[in-house]
C-alpha cells in the first residue's frame, strides 16, 4: 500500500513538472521572450499594416525603440538617415516612432505632411539643455561665431542656431565650416568628440548631456573587456570621455551597426542604448553583443508601443507641430545640414 502511494506521488510530481515546462514554454512564446513577439503583438501589427496601406501612411523608427516597433517600421535608422527620408517622402501621413525633436524635425523637413507621434510625452531631456543667454553671450563675444546644434534639440533651440548636425555627420560638417569659432549645443560629449577630431577649430561647449549615455560607466565597460578580452568596444559619441577613450570605434547608432556588420570579428562590447541590439543581432546572428550591466535604456524611446501606433493611425491624433515664430529659422538649420552633409 505504502509503495503504491509513493509511486502515485512520484507520478503526480512528474506530471506537475511536465505541466510547468509546457506552461513556461507557452508563456515564453506568448510573452515575447522566445520568438520576439506575442500573438497579441502580431494581431496589432496586422491591423497597423492594413490601416497604413489604407491611409498611405509610412512608419519611421529610430534604432532605440522596442523591437516589435522596429519590426513594423518602413524605415528604421539613426537620426540622420530618418531626417533624409522624412525630407523626401511622398506619403501624406508620417508616423514618427521616436522622441519629440524627431517629430518636430519631420514637420520642418516635410511641412505639407501630417506627422503623428505615438506618444507625445516621449521627449529627449538633452534637447532642452541650453539657455538662449548662453548662445547670445557667445554671439556677442566672437564675431565669426557659428552656432552648431545637435539635432537632439528643440525647434526653438534650432531657431537660434546656424546649422544642425547629427552624430553621423557632425565632424564632417564642423570641419568644412569656414568659421574658426564654433559654439556646439547642447551635447557636451558629442561636442568634445567633434573638438578632438577638428583641433584646428575653437569649439566651445555648454553643459548638456544625454542622461542615458552619460550613465554608461567606464568601470562596467572595463569589466566587460576583462571577461571578453577579444571583444571590440563600440560606443556612441554621447558617452563620457572616460568611455570614449577606451573605444575601438566611436560613431552613431548606424555607424556602430555598420562597423560590427562589416567586420570579421564576432564579439562586441556596445556602449549605446540597448535598442540597437535588435538590428545588430538581425544582421549578425552568429555574433555576441555585450551591454553594460547597468543597461542603457532610454525610457522615452520605450514609450512607443504598437498599441499607441495603432491608435494614432486610427484617430490621427497627436500631430507634431512647430510654433510659427520658430519654424522658418529652425528649418533653415536642418536644410543646411542636409546640404552640407552631402
Ligand atoms: P543617432 O541616431 O545619431 O545615432 O543618435 C542617437 C540618439 O541619441 C538619438 O536620440
Ligand atoms: Fe535623448 Fe539620450 Fe534618449 Fe537619445 S537616448 S533620446 S539622447 S535621452
What order do the helices and strands come in, and which of them pair?
Elements: H1 2-30, H2 39-55, E1 57-62, H3 67-72, E2 75-77, H4 79-88, E3 93-97, H5 100-109, E4 114-116, H6 132-141, E5 146-150, H7 155-159, E6 163-165, H8 170-176, E7 181-185, H9 188-197, E8 202-205, H10 211-214, H11 218-227, E9 232-235, H12 241-244, E10 249-250, H13 253-262, E11 267-271, H14 277-283, E12 288-290, H15 306-315, H16 324-340
Parallel strand pairs: 1-2, 1-3, 3-4, 5-6, 5-7, 7-8, 9-10, 9-11, 11-12
Tally of individual helices:
16
Give the strand order, joined by hyphens, for the main sheet.
2-1-3-4
How can the largest sheet be summarized?
4 strands, parallel
Secondary-structure content class:
alpha/beta
* Helical amount: 40-55%
Residues in β-strands, percent:
5-15%
Spatial separation of the terminal alpha carbons? 86 Å
The set of bound ligands, ions and cofactors reads:
1,3-dihydroxyacetonephosphate, iron/sulfur cluster
> Rounded to an integer, what's the Rg over CA atoms?
24 Å
Can you describe this structure?
49% of the residues lie in helices and 14% in strands. The N terminus is likely disordered. Helix 2 packs parallel to helix 15, helix 4 packs parallel to helix 5 and helix 8 packs across helix 9. It is α/β, with parallel strands linked by helices and 342 residues long. The radius of gyration is 24 Å and the shape is globular. The longest helix has 29 residues. The protein contains 16 helices and 12 strands. The strands form 3 sheets. The chain has a 4-stranded parallel sheet, sandwiched between helices. A 4-stranded parallel sheet has the order 6-5-7-8, sandwiched between helices. It has a 4-stranded parallel sheet with strand order 10-9-11-12, sandwiched between helices.
